[in-house]
């Protein structure tokens, strides 16, 4: 367990009470990195888009109270400086994996970057995107496999377990797997997470919410606290 990196928390920062409960629970579970979105890319423009800087302030203050690091998504090159003031790790969403100018700017930062694979990106495209960051001087990169868009509709995206050893064979960067977005259904997250670790992933990015049914973002895939505790118990035995 000590060598497995766990990044967990709600999809989006919604309010002080929600993020406080999440951080307190993560600290109790031994998680070191709290996730939470302040800027949320949504397919539907009418959906909750995040609290912006207010969310960043809540996330940072809460994480500090519980001695946690923060990972959050930065969506726009214009927001890199702002998000960097609050986050320990900058997350690049799948939509931005192909934005070379965005990746170059992140490469000029000193913050670690978690780069998500584009939902239709080949392995070569994924690794070349990481090189855009690396070539600007930032070699502190986490790769993140989050599933691809395919004909399959049993899950939100198709998580190719075979891509995990393939990525590991071609890159020395730590590989994090996001089973939450791949599953789209909380009942599938635990087995997919365990399968990813068994295939050689270095860590997991997990959505967890104090009350998943009331989550303002991706409620169907968020684990409850009880479910996350079950996952952590299983991970500790691996």
Give the end-to-end Cα distance, rounded to a whole number of Å: 7 Å
- Order of strands, main sheet, comes to 1-2-3-4-5-6-7-8
Q: Output the radius of gyration.
A: 16 Å
> DSSP strand (E) fraction?
5-15%
- Secondary structural class: alpha/beta
Principal-axis shape equals globular
* Uncertain stretches of 5 or more adjacent residues: none
Offer a few descriptive terms.
238 residues; alpha/beta; TIM Barrel; 9 helices
Short description:
With 238 residues, the protein is α/β, with parallel strands linked by helices. The chain has one domain: TIM Barrel (Alpha-Beta Barrel). The protein is built from 9 helices and 8 strands.
Protein described:
There is one protein chain. This protein has 238 residues and is an alpha/beta fold. It has an eight-stranded parallel β-barrel with strand order 1-2-3-4-5-6-7-8, surrounded by seven helices. The protein has helices at residues 16-29, 53-65, 80-86, 100-107, 123-134, 163-170, 179-183, 186-198, 225-236; strands spanning 5-9, 33-35, 69-73, 89-92, 113-116, 141-145, 175-177, 203-207.
């Amino acid at each position: 367990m000590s060598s497995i990196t766990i990044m967990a928390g709600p999809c989006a920062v919604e309010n002080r009470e929600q993020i406080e409960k999440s951080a307190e629970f993560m600290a109790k579970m031994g998680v070191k990195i709290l996730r939470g979105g302040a800027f949320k890319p949504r397919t539907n423009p009418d959906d909750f888009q995040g609290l912006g800087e207010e969310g960043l302030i809540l996330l940072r203050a809460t994480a500090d109270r519980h001695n946690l690091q923060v990972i959050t998504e930065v969506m726009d090159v214009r927001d890199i400086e702002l998000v960097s003031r609050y986050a320990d790790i900058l997350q690049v969403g799948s939509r931005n994996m192909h934005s070379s100018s965005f990746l170059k700017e992140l490469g000029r930062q000193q913050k670690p970057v978690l780069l998500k694979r584009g939902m239709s990106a080949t392995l070569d495209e994924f690794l070349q995107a990481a090189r855009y960051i690396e070539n600007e001087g930032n070699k502190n990169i986490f790769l993140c496999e989050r599933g691809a868009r395919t004909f399959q509709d049993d899950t939100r995206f198709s998580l190719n377990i075979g891509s995990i050893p393939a990525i590991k064979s071609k890159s020395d960067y730590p590989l994090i797997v996001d089973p939450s977005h791949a599953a789209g259904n909380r009942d599938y997250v635990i087995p997919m997470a365990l399968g990813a670790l068994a295939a050689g992933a270095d860590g997991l990015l997990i959505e967890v919410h104090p009350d998943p049914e009331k989550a303002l973002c991706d409620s169907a895939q968020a684990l409850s606290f009880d479910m996350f505790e079950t996952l952590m118990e299983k991970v500790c035995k691996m």
